[in-house]
Specification:
homodimer; DNA-binding; 116 residues; 3-stranded antiparallel β-sheet; Arc Repressor Mutant, subunit A; 3 strands
Chain lengths: 116, 116
DNA sequence: TATGTAGATCGATGAGCGTCGATCCCGCCG
DNA sequence: CGGCGGGATCGACGCTCATCGATCTACATA
């Protein structure tokens, strides 16, 4: 682990960076992009509650049960569910008239592991 | 744990909701808003990498070391650091010309616990 | 005091987001 | 076949965001 606590020297030749360059492997970038995509999908109170309900019920839930949980129109809830599906956090299945959503459990694992 | 897997009955009296109402304590809402705020701040690859660097170095890091890690202008990196500070994820301290940032360890605890 | 430097702030710009009503699609049932 | 109802999609609106160059503030040093 590199120690970055050193204060950079002032009065340095022009054109040089102000500090020792920190080695920063680009491997991190792909992981950061994946985790940021998941975090972004969770970065809305409605979607956070949707995932929370789906997780707590440990099975599939009908959309017609999710809509009345919020004071929002049905297209808005559908839009949030689509966001979660695009991020890979939830999956859906249509059976007859109804659509059922469920959590995709592996989707949150990387972020959870990173958060420790 | 309520079982939501039951399909709602069709052919119901008009005006009634389509399903049994799910008890949904409003206590969740405040927590969802707090966690969504944190997740939103993490929902950008640059900020995710910033937090990752700060966490891995387990101490304070000078801004002049953070800026060259990204192909971004200094004001943009400063903007991202402000977002993280507003969300309570990082703190900062100025010493002389330089500013140092560090992770606020409690900020991620609630989200980490929720993710399991 | 004057100059240079680190970092924050400002203003603008273009892209994206959350929300809604209206509409479309497609199974269901009389 | 025809109508209904659940859910997804569309188009629009207002707001937020990420990014930049320019500027501002505060400190350090000559």
């Amino acid at each position: 682990m590199t120690d970055l606590r050193l204060a950079p020297k002032t009065k340095r030749p022009a054109g040089e960076p102000c500090c020792e360059p920190v080695v920063y492997p680009d491997i991190e970038r792909a992981q950061a992009e994946r985790m940021a995509e998941v975090a972004k999908a969770l970065g809305d109170p409605v979607r956070m509650q949707l995932v929370d309900v789906l997780r707590k019920h440990a099975g599939e839930v009908c959309v017609c049960e999710l809509v009345p949980l919020f004071e929002l129109s049905q297209p808005t809830v559908s839009h949030h569910l689509k966001k979660l599906r695009d991020a890979g956090i939830v999956g859906s299945e249509r059976r007859g008239l109804w659509a059922y959503y469920y959590v995709e459990p592996e989707a949150l694992e990387e972020l959870a592991a990173w958060l420790g």
